[in-house]
């Protein structure tokens, strides 16, 4: 429980202050429980009006990232339909760093990135894509490379010089640092470069960034790391279905400009069936989550490509209303989810988490619709038109599978 003691300063004390300070706050508990920021000077950067889309190196390549991987990924994304479908950012995650130079500027690891970051950014931009990079609010990244603590403005300046468009900012080696302060400092540093840089907060949800992150960043991780498994907690990581349960209740906090981030996609990494990957992708779209592919997009199977490039499902994620869909009914292992859409319609998701096929029926009141209304239906995975539907929609759903329906008038 936060107890906050606010001592108003006297007029005499105020006159002695160099900067205008209206109240002095004494906190007697964990600073990470601070209330949402009320700083009126802090404004959102205007980016990410729909959930960011792109690719990140971590889920597939972890610390084995290098220039060849990034160039190959850029080539693939520009030509395999991903760019046309909206995947935009190529984000180099951890382990790209070299040391700091004599003036404290961060350099790239020249063994892994012999051409340097500026040339790599130019290459990505020439393909019509955008360039993302990774750092950490502490003294070291999670992979043990130099963190940005104490170098925020210098690092932001260096990224801007390299042409960076996106920063993922992690939370390892932060000690007792206050999360809101740490992320606000880097947000201010990015703003000072005058380059539009999307800011991705990777603080794992520890100090509830959904309460204070809206004017600081464009997306915030709500959980620990995803892993290419169906459910459960595996060390520090979570299976796909378990991540969904952690991210789902946060639906009121997502809106254009700032999104809940249940972590990057595992689609195509081999640990799940295609049915499960379709469910994974559908649930991310229902939750208006950033769609950051995490597989080897230069060597993916046709089945993986069909999932990542399903334009009907992507359109649900990218809907301009920006509402995060959520669960409206659960019966044992069967769930009904709804996402309100900009055209006044709904996207309906029937999700069977059980081990046997199950029939799931959603009636209109569960979707917030009057019983008398009839709506047009379209199945977003079979792409079949379902004609006009009234009162309810039901379907048999495969184990661990989904049926995803767009309802519109
Ligand atoms: C943390 C993050 C991951 C990834 C790794 C890199 O675990 O949550 O997404 O960036 O660090 O070391």
Topology:
Blueprint: E1 4-8, H1 11-16, E2 23-27, E3 53-56, H2 58-61, H3 67-79, H4 82-85, E4 89-91, E5 97-100, E6 106-108, H5 117-126, E7 130-136, H6 152-162, E8 166-170, H7 179-192, E9 198-201, E10 219-221, E11 225-226, E12 233-234, E13 237-238, H8 240-247, E14 259-261, H9 274-286, E15 291-293, H10 302-308, H11 311-317, E16 326-331, E17 334-340, E18 346-352, E19 358-363, E20 374-379, E21 385-390, E22 392-397, E23 402-408
Parallel strand pairs: 3-4, 3-15, 4-7, 7-8, 8-9, 9-10, 10-14, 11-13
Antiparallel strand pairs: 1-2, 5-6, 12-13, 16-17, 17-18, 18-23, 19-22, 20-21, 20-23
The structure holds alpha-D-galactopyranose.
Outline the structure in words.
With about 400 residues, the protein is α/β, with parallel strands linked by helices. It has helices at about 10-15, 60, 65-80, 80-85, 115-125, 150-160, 180-190, 240-245, 275-285, 300-310, 310-315; strands at about 5-10, 25, 55, 90, 95-100, 105-110, 130-135, 165-170, 200, 220, 225, 235, 235-240, 260, 290-295, 325-330, 335-340, 345-350, 360-365, 375-380, 385-390, 390-395, 400-409. The strands form six sheets. The protein has an eight-stranded parallel beta sheet with strand order 14-10-9-8-7-4-3-15. It has a six-stranded antiparallel beta sheet with strand order 16-17-18-23-20-21, covered by helices on one side. A three-stranded mixed beta sheet has the order 11-13-12. Strand 8, helix 7 (about 180-190) and strand 9 form a beta-alpha-beta unit. Helix 6 packs across helix 7 and helix 9 (about 275-285) packs parallel to helix 10 (about 300-310). It is globular, with a radius of gyration of 23 Å. The structure holds alpha-D-galactopyranose. Alpha-D-galactopyranose (GLA) binds near residues 58, 141, 170, 202 and 225. This is Alpha-galactosidase. It is an enzyme of class 3 (hydrolase).
